[in-house]
């Protein structure tokens, strides 16, 4: 599963910032290939409004 950070983290709650960082994303436009497992799916669901997800 490929995820890309599309929205800024400025002004976001700390838990959302930490979730995005734990997915390995730091700045807008960063992409990462992550495993498709329940733990990662839960993190993506929490910050889905900030990400673009492709299979």
From TrEMBL:
One record GO biological process: translation
CDD domains listed in its UniProt record: Ribosomal_L30 (cd01658)
Domain Large ribosomal subunit protein uL30-like ferredoxin-like fold: 2-50
Gene3D superfamilies attached to this UniProt entry: Ribosomal protein L30, ferredoxin-like fold domain (3.30.1390.20)
GO cellular component: cytosolic large ribosomal subunit
A GO molecular-function annotation: structural constituent of ribosome
Pfam families according to UniProt: Ribosomal_L30
UniProt key word Ribonucleoprotein: yes
Sequence similarity: Belongs to the universal ribosomal protein uL30 family.
NCBIfam families from the UniProt entry: rpmD_bact (TIGR01308)
Quaternary state and interactors: Part of the 50S ribosomal subunit.
The protein's name in its UniProt record: Large ribosomal subunit protein uL30
Gene assigned in the entry: rpmD
């Amino acid at each position: 599963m490929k995820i890309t950070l599309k929205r800024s983290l400025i002004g976001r709650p700390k838990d959302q910032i930490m979730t995005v960082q734990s997915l390995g994303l730091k700045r807008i436009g960063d992409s990462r290939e992550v495993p498709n497992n329940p733990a990662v799916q839960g993190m993506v669901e929490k910050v889905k409004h900030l990400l673009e997800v492709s299979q």
